[in-house]
Amino acid sequence: MFVEVKFNVDPYKFPRGNPDRFSPAEDEVYGRGQIAEYAGECMERQHRLFFFSLYILKDQFSIQIWDRDGMIMSKYKDYKKDPMALVRFLYYFVKMSDDQVGYDPTVSAVAANSEDVIRMKAKIEGNTFADYPNHVQKYVKEAMKAVLRPNDLSKGEAQTPIYKVGVPENHNPSLRHFLIGRRFSSSGAEPFGRGTKGYVAYDLQEDEFVFLKDAWRDSSSNPEASTYRLLEKKEVQNIATLCCGGDMPGQSTITHPFLDNFKQPMYHHRLVLKEIGMPLKEYQTSQQLCSFVYSALLAHQYAYEDAQILHRDISENNIVILAERDAEGDEVTTGVLIDWDLSKSLEQLKSNKFSDGNRSGTWYYLSAPRLAFPGKPWELPDDLESFVHLINHFALR
Question: What is the C-alpha separation between 49 and 361, in angstroms, rounded?
Fold first, then answer.
């Protein structure tokens, strides 16, 4: 929980005659943005389902609850007139369990001398670790730096703990466990939305290093793990290999019943991919860039024609470079199309029975018709135009 104290400006003030919208005054907007920034940092750096904050304005206080769907707050209470109201809240708050204050019960910190961490370190220090592509070795050592080189942190660098994370097993109610360290990628420190985070992870079951994706999905979207299973069933090429994944049992947002009528719950979704790719921007030559994008374009074509799936979010972050070693030990690279969380089946696109109101895509790469007419149905030419914008973006920067 964080506490924010202000004396002069109430960022949650409603203008007179308009009880449905906060004040547009500059100071109030700045205050709301400041508090939301704090909330975003908390959601970004901690493994949370929701969390509390305490807002104090002069002699009043309000209790706030944040999750990926929104924020709700109590009415102001005067703690000078009723000091026990604040005391009671703080008393009961410190008595609450970790689950009750919003920590994710499927994530737990692991000691550096635990059996699981010792196994992971042995894997890194063993002979087979050299079989991984060079970039994977680099990413693993950077992610697990806190236990591999705890005395080698640069000045001001935070020591990220090692966590054990549960992921739904395919068609199995039990969770499969992985070790993660420092984040590999993130959608940014924003309090609301998907909150996507990527990690280089150690698979305790298979004794391998893999990629773990953690995100929140809108209720109208398809579970990404299910989309990967369909693509694999249809033998779509140039996509990542799913190890396991699905919606986390019993983990959804709790603020949506108190928000606008169109708000629906968001669901916590995790999946694990066998391959750990490099960002597309790591290409070495223009020929490589075109080759990687072409490989992704082929994956897009196979998904559309064979699995009846349209990706709908073509961007530089959703194409990665996959490097594998051939029989001679040399690295061979190809492009892979990832992040199918916004994809839809052609049947869904035709029926138009899903909500697309919160879908914005990656602005740089959206097609001109989507920008000019945001409400138009998503079609194949929109994705194909995004591939063109992607090539142009790299060519011009």
Answer: 24
For 137, the enclosing helix (H) or strand (E) is helix 134-143
Following DSSP, what letter does each residue of 346-365 receive, concatenated?
HHHHHHT-S--TT----GGG
Residues 22-62 pLDDT 10s:
777 788 888 888 999 999 999 999 999 999 999 999 999 99
CA distances from 74 to 34, 49, 53, 68, 336 (A): 19, 19, 11, 18, 47
Strands 60-66 and 77-78: antiparallel
SS3 label, residue 15: coil
Give the pTM.
0.91
CA distance linking residue 58 with residue 247, whole number of Å? 42
Say if residues 341 and 221 touch (Cβ distance below 8 Å).
Answer: yes
Site of tokens 């000045």? 155
Burial class (CB in 10 A: 0-12, 13-18, 19+), 351: exposed
Unique residue bearing structure tokens 């135009």 = 385
